[in-house]
Amino acid sequence: MSRRRSVPWIHRWSRQIIGAIAIVGALDTAYLTLVELGIFKEAVCPTTGPINCEAVLTSSYAKIFGIPLSLFGFLAYVGIAFFAFAPQFLKSPDAKELRAKVEEWSWLLIFAGATAMFVFSGYLVYLMSFKIKAFCIYCLLSALCSVALMVVTLIGRTWEDIGQLFFTGIVVGMVALIGTLGVYASSEQNLGQPAAQGDPSIIQAPTQPPKPGVGWEITTTSGEAEIALARHLTEVGVKEYVAYWCPHCHEQKLLFGKEAYAKINHIECDPSGKDAKPKLCVDAGVKSYPSWEINGKLNPGVKTLTELADLTGYKGSRNFKYKLR
User: What is residue 130's predicted lDDT score, i.e. its pLDDT?
Assistant: First the structure.
């Protein structure tokens, strides 16, 4: 009489573990999506040093074709959770055969999804390490969830055809990597310059990492209207709070142009930035960059020059040269 072979605990609980990890990842990316959509004003996270969520979330890599990257992550995690729990909804004795098929195919879909997310998360960690040079704790949590999903998927069941699994992983991984590189290449823009094609007055955000402590070079030139507005803003006591690594701050600079922006009273908030005055930023209650202090009130976000003119009672020429995409 032979003893029945016991099933490893990881095999018994693997789907529940995968589902739980996917739910954590979904909650994490849902929060980031709400932050990026402006429903939450800002992520609860440090904004200085290597852990700098704002530097990551305001970088040009945080969106693909204008859509928050975290939204794609949220949908992926929801899909993994659905496939993990799908067989649980087929407990009827009449659905035994269907349940077996769902279990088999859902494992393959989970493996394919986990592989794609593992590759994509690896690329995002590379971007944070070498391009943005800052890390977001929520992005790192998502990457950790992707790694955990991959590990549990591989050890969570007995894979009968290892060769086919390996081949599937290679194909899915290559497609994910090529797709990722292709998407970022097609959406990548010039480094903080007016558009080279189409309307030359349209400002584009930088995609390359900023020069440490300084940021990106202002490559636009100012017209008379920009210079006149800049002088007016300084005369009426307007202040701009910025961080050198903030791409939206650079967009604001480009709207003014090099000559006009030199006349703006701007305050660097990051302690590692040139001529930084972080205490002034803290005392003013600055939470995001750029923020304009007008008549004692903070106005966060990039402002068109027309908006700044309206907010400060500027009466001069409004023949401004540039506009945002």
Answer: 84
